[in-house]
Amino acid sequence: MTEYFLRRILIMLPTFLGITLVVFVVINLAPGGPIDQMLQEIRFGAAAGGGAGGISSMTHEGVSQQIIEELRRQYGFDKPLLVRYGIWLGNLARFDFGKSFVYEEPVIEVIVSKFPVSLQFGIISFFLTYLVCVPLGILKAVYDGSSFDTGTSVVVFVGYSISPIMLGILLIVVFGGGSFLGWFPISGTTSDLYEMMSPVEKVGDRIHHFVLPLICYLIGNFATLTLLMKNSILDEIGKAYVVTARAKGLPEKVVFYRHVLRNALIPIATGLGGFLSIFFAGNLFIEQIFSLDGMGLLFYQSLLARDYPVILGLLTILSLILILGNLISDFLYIVVDPRIDFA
Model-level pTM? Predict the structure, then answer.
């Protein structure tokens, strides 16, 4: 077992390098880079200023070659692609993700500035999902075919079928003062007088702001995890070792909780490995609707602005999180069922 995890750890490095290489090449070869956008701004500025600067100094595209070369040097595009990748990788080894083209700040500072919103929603939604869906899946399996099972299935499937953006608009209209009830705020994570509140009032204010966005974050995950838990239990109940345990006269609770439930949790352990993703949880549509300045909005805005350092920083960190999450999932398999041997 130790050898397996050592091999996995050793494989992580070339896997991570391969991901970063592909991401770097694809992003840098994509059309409409930061230089193109800067040149477009210069052309618009020259057109608005009546061609100030002299037509003779301009190329047929309206910008002199000297300006183009200066921009290439400024953004580091005057070097071959693989050379730029090597420089970027060397900086990455020192935890230097570069400087944002748009914010003109270190990338890590830009990303960290968006952490609070995404981290809060990520942690809360992650734990609420497992705290609700795992027990609900167990109850659905125990009462399989009952009215409780049918009713809860209808609820989770209806929630799964509603897109977050439509649900968000509906919640705002009904509960956010749109047309009916004004129970919850419709934007931000705190009130204007948040800093003047007591600690208890601050907690209540955040909960008040979090209710509607959290519903949108959670609703789509409930159906998948709940039905996975239920079907995993039903699949285990039909296996031979359960029949044998019952034939030996073991109490039904012992059969269910000591044998069936433990084995049924193995597929759930796969998702637990993704808990690291809560640090970068973000949904563009939810953040747009509720005016949340989080990771999803940052990634979208960086794509529009062709802010390559921020895009690369986000994708690199997310790739590392996924690689580590897979390793953690394998470890959780063993915790749930020590009989599993990857050797």
Answer: 0.74
